[in-house]
Amino acid sequence: MKDETPLTYRNSVPSDAKSLPPMARRIFVETFAHLFEPTAFAAFCDSAYGENGSMVQDLGDARILWRIAEAEGKPIGYAKLRPLAAPAPNAALGALELQQIYVAAEWHGKGVARELLDWSVSAARQLGATELYLTVFDQNERAKAFYGKHGFSEVGRCTFTLGGRDYDDRVWLKPL
Fold this sequence. Notes:
The protein is an alpha+beta fold. It is built from five helices and seven strands, in the order βαααβββαβαββ.
């Protein structure tokens, strides 16, 4: 039973470039595939989670910090903390971005996302950041409720392009 399975949390290691992208792709597909045109969505997933995709490249970038949640030695979620790339209005010098928190659906409601968020806030503070930003797909009500509950508020808008079409994202901020 999932409630009894011990969870561990750790920082990323080079071998995560093999195990993390397939899990991340599965979560992304389960969460968003129904909202997008299938061919464009598949191409995006290949570019993000493929063998030489952006996730693998980011796992090799020393400026990007990762925290991995595992159950029985397999990844079930992760957080990705990076230098600010989102179009944040009037961002403080040294602000950071929580670019992704993903947790497998079967682990929702078990405290995994909260633990990953707590790590992200703590790591950002340790790095001297006074602000933590993130972007949320405007149609992701579950994520917006979660971030609002944990002290983030909407401060701007941006777009996410997939298949040549722009979609609304929201920029959120948590002062640290």
